[in-house]
Amino acid sequence: TMKNSVPQAASLLLEKLLLLVHVRPLPAGSGGEPPAAAPGYYDTSCFKRGDLLEVPRTLFIHFGIYLGENRVAHLMPDILPAFTGDRRQIQQVVTNKRLILGVITKTASIRVDTVEDFAYGGSILVNHMDRLFEDQVLGSEEAARRAEKLVGATAYSLLWNNCEHFVTYCRYGAPVSFQTDKFCETVKMIIRDQRSVLASVLVGLASIVCLGLAPSTTLPTIFIPFFLWMAG
User: Fold this and answer.
1) Helix, strand counts (H, E) of the chain
2) pLDDT tens for residues 83-111?
3) 217, 200 in Cβ contact below 8 A?
4) 147-151: Cβ within 8 A, 24+ apart
5) Strand, coil or helix: what is 37?
6) For residue 153, which of 80, 81, 138, 157 is within the disulfide window of CB 3.0 to 4.6 Å?
7) 170 is catalytic
8) Does the predicted model carry a pTM greater than 0.70?
9) Catalytic hit among 46, 163, 184, 210
10) DSSP secondary structure string, 68-93?
């Protein structure tokens, strides 16, 4: 029914938005710090330098390049590198506040973390994307060196420079993101639906509740329904 489909559409769009932002809601009283897996939780003996590690989650997939010795290079939105060059502060586990502010200001860092911190307790797939690129797979050492050269502060874009773009450039020589493609298709599908006007309002309100009152959340809440109404 229409009553059921509207909230479902709103929920779907919100999930896709959070997918690309990599938001991981933390439990109350956690102090903003995500829980870390115990050292040795993962068997790294099956990983080789240059492998593409993929961590599927409910709403998104996170990617990294294995560098050997329990180290993974991966791209994370992070506001902190814009304010300090202190490696000890930057290397601390990225909190949701740092991450969201990084997305809003389009700043990030390609950082090196342990497998435990990178995977965040999730299961790990190894070179799962190779089947999509066939003859484009670069040598493992080349992939690792590319990742190491890019470590440090970088620009961030949900659509053009996220963690998937980083790893596909390193391992396959071309930055692409299948998650971005799926996200864009979902947005187009919802926009084509007249009911998405109400759905976008619900998404905007949910964004304000989840992320707080800020231009990044309130402006889309106002303007997206307006433009959808004009297009209809």
Assistant:
1) 10, 6
2) 887 888 888 888 888 988 898 899 999 99
3) no
4) 147/65, 147/67, 147/73, 147/110, 148/67, 148/73, 150/73, 150/110, 151/73, 151/110, 151/111, 151/112
5) coil
6) 81
7) no
8) no
9) 163
10) ETTEEEEEEE-SGGGT---HHHHTSP
